[in-house]
């Protein structure tokens, strides 16, 4: 099986859910026997992968750079971002196109405040890319429904394959978090869509119940300054820390030091890989009921799912979790073990094998 993967940016160059997923899936496929994988994205590639160059220059120059190399006959081209990837020459040469749909690029841009003309152009480009696919892979039923309803993709070519999590990278260091220093960890891009402002609004009620609780926010984004100002104005700003970006080692340690984690999202969440990372480290994630985010804990502990805009519900669930009403470290770890990269790779190879018939 010959697979040519096209991403956006390697995770080591630009942190984010799409880049984490693409990087980890590419590495897992590269390590699989009997599969010939060439994976391309911008930035610094991991071992065995390739780069189109630095993620700089104009959008047009990056699109042109991503058009190479031309797929060999019989190749499965697997694109992970609508903007990038080589043209596919079609079935006459045995070439097949797989598209990974991580979320609606156009709709996310609209939520971020982009003008209507740019949003429309992105939507039309997405429609064009997805329409020519032989197979579309999504992480959740929520994203599958977006494709069918908003992009008019044939349901017959959509495959739902949940992601994986690296159980070694996010290892369980201790059985339970320390009771002496309650820490709530939030790992998110600092963008309005992520709903961190709602979490900060809820934080005062948490501190009223647990005065020594601390909130650690890891991530960067365009809303960073506004969120810091908001936290300072709550009257308990000294208990809220912004750590910026963190390396994988630092992030894994932050998970293990936390009492509980929280993953707020206001709109358009495809899955939320950080919830799986938290579970792997033995820390229960409280997630909002947005998009595919609840899938990480649904059926495991539904009480960890809270309304996305309800500050009272968010604060109440955080307080109860800090006081001990949460799954144990071992239970969280067992849940994470249901989402391995080996299992994810097996399901991808089974999906790709439909082209053999």
How would you describe this structure to a colleague?
This protein is an alpha/beta fold. The chain folds into 2 domains: 2-164 and 340-356, Rossmann fold; 183-336, 3-Layer(aba) Sandwich (Rossmann fold), CATH 3.40.50.2000. It is built from 12 helices and 13 strands. The strands form 2 sheets. It has a 7-stranded parallel beta sheet with strand order 3-2-1-4-5-6-7. A 6-stranded parallel beta sheet has the order 10-9-8-11-12-13, with helices on both faces. Helix 9 links the parallel strand 11 (260-263) and strand 12 (285-288). Helix 6 crosses helix 10 (311-322). The protein is globular. It starts with a strand and ends in a 5-residue tail after the last helix. The relative contact order is 0.12. The mean pLDDT is 92.
Descriptive tags:
alpha/beta; globular; 2 domains; 357 residues; Rossmann fold; single chain; six-stranded parallel β-sheet; seven-stranded parallel β-sheet
In short:
36% of the residues lie in helices and 16% in strands.
Radius of gyration: 21 Å
Going by CATH, the homologous superfamily of the largest domain would be Glycogen Phosphorylase B
> Could you name the CATH class of the largest domain?
Alpha Beta
Task: Label the CATH architecture of the largest domain.
Answer: 3-Layer(aba) Sandwich
Estimate the global geometry from the Cα principal axes.
globular
